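Hey,
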Amino acid sequence: MSIDPKFGRFCDECGRTITVAVRVYQRKDYCRTCYQRTFLPVPCSQCGNSTRPHRHAAGDPVCDPCVRSKRTCLRCGKLTLIAGKLVGRSAVCASCAPRFSDKQTCGGCGRVSLRLTRPLFAGLLEPVCDSCRNKLNHATCSRCKRYRPVASTSVDGTRCCKDCVPGHETMHECPGCGCLLNGGGSGHCRSCINRRVVEKDAALVAAELEAPWCRDLWHGFVLASLSTDANSPRLRAQVNRSSELFRALDQRFVSMDEINSRSLLQRLDSQFLRLHLKASRYVVDKLKLHDFTLERADQVEAQRSSKILAESADKPHGQMIRAYAQWLIEIGIAARTARLYLRAAESFCREAMLNGSKPWQSSSLVNHLKKTPGNAANIARFVRYCREQLGWNVEMPNKAIWCPKTSRNSRDIRDLRAVLKTLENRPDESMTTKELARVLSLALGISAAQLMRSRLENGVLRRPDGSIEIEQDAVIEPSNPLYRFAQQWAVRAEAYSGPR
């Protein structure tokens, strides 16, 4: 474009001022007079139609339609009949045109983008990115679950696409399996999508596995996953994550004969197997490792016991705890039980500050059991060890000292409060007879079995003042907070024997 600072745009051929150029050729403007004199009409060398090339242009004349019919995009090489942008003498398709634009900031989200448009349909003049523009009129359809332009919105805010408008719903067949799906188009069902992407990913993983037996295990696992979880939206991620287990098997085992419960746990950590639980269960079932669960439990308990010993290694009681752990193994204590004994003993030794040279004071053990009465059975084994193996004069204190009995009344009150809390917001009609019997039994001090038997044999008496006699000398008045339960109890009784 040729522009003079004083007079404005002018023709590059004659120099006269013009408002609009009739033709722009090689960045030069031509007025109408110069255009007719410089661009002479001649037949197109390809189609024969009339065209106006520059009089000094080299080569055979070709009309614009013929040029566009063979024009390709400068960036991607795709046939471009309609250019999205002209770069010099070359054309760029609409998809690649943003690549030749300057980056700008989106007015909606503030991100820098090459693709900015003005959503005039929403009354916005500021350019925004494609994501912000789509959010103005797109949403996930409540019926077909696809991200589509919104065609209707119900009173409760439910949005539908044009193929799922209430009263005009459409359906289509899945191209893969033929099942009917909500909405229009030709989309595949979740099962077909999963099958296609999972099988593609599985082929790539199989190419990495060297051992044929490991590839067979991997393909079997993939087929089993597709048969059980084909409709899961997380199937692809789960299968890809499980491939780590089969890669580890391929690296650490030469043949399938080497795999047994013990070797599997030794070469692959128990935590790693649990991380890939579904895949490890498939391998265990396929190889018929029936003792794997027991082996794994023993290994886990051994690791936990080792952790306890490591924590106490630098403590004054560390040597005594190690000797105690060895003694438990020698007398044949199960791994889990040994770990519980070890944890209880280490906790007591740490609290009592034992160093293994002299026994503890009886008050130390009593105080410990008052804080952790659940450790009594586990501590008893440690007391026996200290008495028999170390020769200490120690005994388990009497239970009445560190665990005094709670009166029945206080226990009943505690249990009644707990039951009432669970039934606080429940409708009266939804309460079961067993729950009502439990409440009345705790409140009246009568066994639930006796209440049930009395209800069937004698029924329940409604007195003139509105109070309800559950049993003789067991009356609940309307002012009592338990009256709602007594009233329901009477309703259930009258259903059997009629009102009294």
